Amino acid sequence: MVWGLSGSALAKIKLDRISEARQDAGEILKIWPWLNLDYFGSWSNYKDSAHAEQRNNELRMAGIPEHPPSQ
Fold first, then answer.
1. Looking at residue 33, what DSSP letter applies?
2. Is the pLDDT at 1 greater than 90, yes or no?
3. For 26-46, how does the pLDDT look when each residue is reduced to its tens digit (9 = 90+)?
4. How far is CA 65 from the centre of its chain?
5. Terminal alpha carbon distance of the chain
6. How many CB atoms lie within 10 A of CB 53?
7. Which residues, 6+ apart, have CB-to-CB distance to 49 below 8 Å?
8. What would the pLDDT profile of 52-62 be if each residue is shown by its tens digit?
9. Would 13 be classed as within a structural domain?
10. Is 7 a domain residue?
11. Coil, strand or helix: which one is 27?
12. Which of 31, 19, 22 is nearest to 64 (CA)?
């Protein structure tokens, strides 16, 4: 479910549907509150770092936090 929502959020960012992308990101963070861009980067397998950076920028715009929440 989370991966589908993240794909949906990314697509909505590309379509400039920012508020809808933020809703998807909110749902993601309800399911996995620890999810963040550091985590995405830890398993990313993009060969071109520009693609990874673009994805991170889009997820950031949707509302996924940069770092894990503080304990």
1. T
2. no
3. 999 999 999 999 988 777 788
4. 8
5. 25
6. 12
7. none
8. 899 999 999 99
9. yes
10. yes
11. helix
12. 22
30 near 64, Cβ under 8 Å?
no
Tokens of 65: 């936090």
For the question of whether the overall pTM of this predicted structure is more than 0.70, the answer is yes
| Amino acid residing at 28 | I
**How many domains, the chain?**
1
Listing DSSP states for 35-59 in one string gives: --HHHHHHH---SSHHHHHHHHHHH
Single-letter residue type at 48 = D
Signed CA dihedral, 54, 26, 40, 10: sign only: negative
> What's the mean pLDDT in 2-8?
92
> Does the residue 69 lie in any domain?
no
> For residue 9, what are the domain limits?
2-62
**Structural domain includes residue 68:** no
